[in-house]
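Deliverable D5.2: sample structural annotation.
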Amino acid sequence: MNLTEVFKKIEMALAPSEDVAPEIQEKIEMATMKLANGIVLEAESFEAGQNVFLIGEDDEKVAAPVGEHELEDGKILVIEEEGVIKEIKDATEEVVEEAPVAEEESTEMAEEMEYVSKEEFTAAMTEIKEMIAAMMPKEEQSAEEVVEEKVEMSEAPAAKKVAAAPVEKKPQVQNFSKSGRGTTLARIYSKLS
Protein backbone atom coordinates (compact mmCIF):
# COMPACT_ATOMS: atom_id res chain seq x y z
CA MET A 1 0.00 0.00 0.00
CA ASN A 2 1.51 3.25 -1.06
CA LEU A 3 0.91 6.75 0.30
CA THR A 4 -1.70 7.77 -2.29
CA GLU A 5 -3.88 4.76 -1.52
CA VAL A 6 -3.77 5.58 2.21
CA PHE A 7 -4.87 9.17 1.52
CA LYS A 8 -7.72 7.97 -0.71
CA LYS A 9 -8.98 5.62 2.02
CA ILE A 10 -8.85 8.41 4.60
CA GLU A 11 -10.64 10.76 2.21
CA MET A 12 -13.36 8.20 1.58
CA ALA A 13 -13.79 7.61 5.30
CA LEU A 14 -14.12 11.31 6.04
CA ALA A 15 -16.27 12.25 3.03
CA PRO A 16 -20.03 11.83 3.56
CA SER A 17 -21.44 8.97 1.56
CA GLU A 18 -24.43 9.37 -0.73
CA ASP A 19 -26.50 6.74 1.09
CA VAL A 20 -26.44 8.83 4.35
CA ALA A 21 -29.15 11.49 4.30
CA PRO A 22 -27.73 15.00 4.57
CA GLU A 23 -28.75 16.92 7.68
CA ILE A 24 -31.49 19.39 7.02
CA GLN A 25 -30.79 22.75 8.52
CA GLU A 26 -33.85 24.78 9.23
CA LYS A 27 -33.34 28.45 8.74
CA ILE A 28 -35.21 30.30 11.45
CA GLU A 29 -36.83 33.53 10.38
CA MET A 30 -36.04 36.25 12.88
CA ALA A 31 -38.40 39.16 13.48
CA THR A 32 -36.91 42.63 13.86
CA MET A 33 -38.15 45.78 15.59
CA LYS A 34 -36.60 49.15 16.32
CA LEU A 35 -36.36 50.97 19.59
CA ALA A 36 -37.35 54.63 19.82
CA ASN A 37 -33.65 55.60 19.69
CA GLY A 38 -33.09 53.62 16.46
CA ILE A 39 -31.39 50.48 17.81
CA VAL A 40 -32.52 47.30 16.02
CA LEU A 41 -33.86 44.37 18.07
CA GLU A 42 -34.07 40.81 16.77
CA ALA A 43 -36.05 37.83 18.13
CA GLU A 44 -37.81 34.71 16.81
CA SER A 45 -41.05 36.39 17.77
CA PHE A 46 -41.76 39.28 20.09
CA GLU A 47 -43.68 37.35 22.72
CA ALA A 48 -43.14 36.69 26.42
CA GLY A 49 -40.35 34.20 27.13
CA GLN A 50 -38.54 34.65 23.80
CA ASN A 51 -34.87 35.60 23.53
CA VAL A 52 -34.19 39.10 22.19
CA PHE A 53 -30.92 40.56 20.93
CA LEU A 54 -29.60 44.01 20.05
CA ILE A 55 -27.98 44.20 16.62
CA GLY A 56 -24.78 46.25 16.54
CA GLU A 57 -23.25 48.22 13.68
CA ASP A 58 -21.28 45.22 12.41
CA ASP A 59 -24.22 42.76 12.76
CA GLU A 60 -23.01 41.64 16.17
CA LYS A 61 -25.79 40.24 18.37
CA VAL A 62 -25.82 41.18 22.06
CA ALA A 63 -28.43 40.06 24.61
CA ALA A 64 -30.80 42.93 25.40
CA PRO A 65 -30.18 44.53 28.81
CA VAL A 66 -32.63 44.34 31.70
CA GLY A 67 -35.17 47.17 31.88
CA GLU A 68 -38.01 48.77 30.01
CA HIS A 69 -37.32 49.82 26.44
CA GLU A 70 -39.61 52.01 24.34
CA LEU A 71 -40.25 50.67 20.85
CA GLU A 72 -40.70 52.79 17.72
CA ASP A 73 -44.45 52.08 17.62
CA GLY A 74 -44.91 53.43 21.18
CA LYS A 75 -45.11 50.11 23.01
CA ILE A 76 -42.88 49.23 25.96
CA LEU A 77 -40.70 46.11 25.82
CA VAL A 78 -40.07 44.80 29.36
CA ILE A 79 -36.96 42.66 29.89
CA GLU A 80 -36.64 41.25 33.41
CA GLU A 81 -33.86 38.72 32.78
CA GLU A 82 -31.04 39.67 30.40
CA GLY A 83 -32.02 38.80 26.84
CA VAL A 84 -35.47 37.37 27.70
CA ILE A 85 -38.75 39.20 27.02
CA LYS A 86 -41.10 39.41 30.00
CA GLU A 87 -43.89 41.29 28.26
CA ILE A 88 -44.77 43.94 25.72
CA LYS A 89 -47.23 46.52 26.96
CA ASP A 90 -48.76 49.71 25.68
CA ALA A 91 -47.16 53.01 26.63
CA THR A 92 -50.47 54.35 28.01
CA GLU A 93 -50.37 51.83 30.88
CA GLU A 94 -46.88 52.99 31.78
CA VAL A 95 -47.82 56.68 31.80
CA VAL A 96 -50.78 56.07 34.14
CA GLU A 97 -48.58 54.20 36.61
CA GLU A 98 -45.74 56.72 36.58
CA ALA A 99 -47.82 59.89 36.89
CA PRO A 100 -48.66 59.54 40.63
CA VAL A 101 -45.10 58.56 41.46
CA ALA A 102 -43.73 61.60 39.63
CA GLU A 103 -46.11 63.92 41.52
CA GLU A 104 -45.06 62.45 44.89
CA GLU A 105 -41.39 62.86 44.02
CA SER A 106 -41.90 66.45 42.89
CA THR A 107 -43.68 67.39 46.16
CA GLU A 108 -40.91 65.74 48.20
CA MET A 109 -38.30 67.62 46.23
CA ALA A 110 -40.20 70.89 46.66
CA GLU A 111 -40.30 70.36 50.44
CA GLU A 112 -36.56 69.66 50.50
CA MET A 113 -35.76 72.69 48.35
CA GLU A 114 -37.64 75.25 50.50
CA TYR A 115 -35.55 78.03 51.97
CA VAL A 116 -35.28 78.48 55.72
CA SER A 117 -36.78 81.67 57.10
CA LYS A 118 -34.71 84.01 59.24
CA GLU A 119 -36.75 83.17 62.36
CA GLU A 120 -36.25 79.43 61.90
CA PHE A 121 -32.54 79.97 61.37
CA THR A 122 -32.12 82.11 64.49
CA ALA A 123 -34.16 79.63 66.56
CA ALA A 124 -31.93 76.76 65.40
CA MET A 125 -28.79 78.80 66.12
CA THR A 126 -29.91 79.65 69.67
CA GLU A 127 -30.74 76.01 70.30
CA ILE A 128 -27.25 74.98 69.14
CA LYS A 129 -25.66 77.69 71.32
CA GLU A 130 -27.60 76.43 74.35
CA MET A 131 -26.37 72.90 73.72
CA ILE A 132 -22.79 74.13 73.50
CA ALA A 133 -23.22 76.21 76.67
CA ALA A 134 -24.57 73.15 78.50
CA MET A 135 -21.42 71.25 77.56
CA MET A 136 -19.01 74.05 78.48
CA PRO A 137 -19.28 74.00 82.33
CA LYS A 138 -18.33 70.33 82.37
CA GLU A 139 -15.19 71.07 80.37
CA GLU A 140 -14.31 74.10 82.52
CA GLN A 141 -14.67 72.05 85.73
CA SER A 142 -12.42 69.31 84.38
CA ALA A 143 -9.86 71.94 83.31
CA GLU A 144 -9.83 73.40 86.86
CA GLU A 145 -9.28 69.91 88.34
CA VAL A 146 -6.32 69.34 86.03
CA VAL A 147 -4.73 72.65 87.08
CA GLU A 148 -5.16 71.72 90.79
CA GLU A 149 -3.51 68.33 90.21
CA LYS A 150 -0.58 70.01 88.48
CA VAL A 151 -0.10 72.34 91.44
CA GLU A 152 -0.24 69.43 93.91
CA MET A 153 2.32 67.44 91.95
CA SER A 154 4.72 70.33 91.52
CA GLU A 155 4.86 70.80 95.31
CA ALA A 156 5.95 67.20 95.87
CA PRO A 157 9.74 66.60 96.14
CA ALA A 158 11.38 65.31 93.03
CA ALA A 159 13.26 62.02 92.99
CA LYS A 160 17.01 61.79 92.49
CA LYS A 161 18.24 61.93 88.96
CA VAL A 162 19.45 58.64 87.68
CA ALA A 163 22.34 58.77 85.30
CA ALA A 164 22.81 56.08 82.70
CA ALA A 165 25.95 54.01 82.84
CA PRO A 166 28.46 55.05 80.20
CA VAL A 167 28.60 52.64 77.32
CA GLU A 168 31.70 52.44 75.20
CA LYS A 169 30.86 52.75 71.54
CA LYS A 170 33.15 51.30 68.95
CA PRO A 171 33.02 53.02 65.60
CA GLN A 172 31.96 50.74 62.82
CA VAL A 173 34.33 50.96 59.92
CA GLN A 174 33.44 49.52 56.56
CA ASN A 175 36.43 48.42 54.55
CA PHE A 176 35.06 48.39 51.06
CA SER A 177 38.30 47.60 49.29
CA LYS A 178 38.63 44.17 50.93
CA SER A 179 35.06 43.02 50.59
CA GLY A 180 34.04 44.92 47.47
CA ARG A 181 35.29 45.05 43.93
CA GLY A 182 37.35 48.14 44.56
CA THR A 183 37.72 51.24 42.47
CA THR A 184 37.88 51.30 38.73
CA LEU A 185 41.60 52.00 38.79
CA ALA A 186 42.22 49.00 41.10
CA ARG A 187 40.31 46.71 38.74
CA ILE A 188 42.31 47.89 35.75
CA TYR A 189 45.60 47.30 37.59
CA SER A 190 44.50 43.84 38.65
CA LYS A 191 43.76 42.88 35.05
CA LEU A 192 47.06 44.26 33.79
CA SER A 193 49.18 42.37 36.29
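Annotation notes: Confidence is low (pLDDT under 50) at residues 94-98. The chain is about 45% helix and 15% strand.
The annotation will be released with the project's public dataset once the embargo ends.
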